[in-house]
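User: Sorry, what's this?
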Amino acid sequence: MKTSLLRARSRARSHLWYQLYWVLYLIWFFWLDFTVTDPKYIIRSPLDDFIPFNEWFIFPYGSWFFLLAGVTALLWWFDTASYDKLCLMMFSGMTFCLIVYMVLPNGLDIRPMAEEVGRSNIAMTLMQLIWKADASVNVCPSIHCQSSACMAIAFSGSTLAREKKWLKILAFGWAALICASTVFTKQHSIIDVFCGLAVALVWVPVLYLRPRKA
């Protein structure tokens, strides 16, 4: 038992270097956040006007961090093949999004003012903190949605969920709720959501629909 645990730990540790990508990503992301102050392209869809602002969606929006940490850790420890797929799919997609932000600097103009909302509660307080920390630029494609889809796809295709339909439903349901939260909190336009999902889904035929070798 102890030998098996040590072997699993050694195998998983050799795949941990993928997480160094976060250093590059955070530097790149915040550099763009500070330098893109006047986006050239404003993203907006008529559908955005039909989606009401709801500050309580800040909680599923923030749950993205728990999904990210949980799925990454579980796959790293229990299914390194699926972990590798997740890293390839998610990190390449994030890189693509950052390149788009550089080439096509974009932003939003759909965020309401706190005075317009006219409500005072803990969710609204959190929303205002998010708006202060996260400028309405670099939004399309949505990395929040792209990475959420990647995590649901990778987890549902892993050995952890292969025979457990309820876990697959939970993974995709959680990711869908996060995607919905991005538009209800006016963090993203519906266009950002679909573009983010497209960036994630492009990997499915490559990583998950290839015919298995006999």
Remarks:
- The chain has a mean pLDDT of 90.
- Residues 80-103 form the longest helix (24 residues).
- Residues 58 and 185 are 7 Å apart (CA to CA).
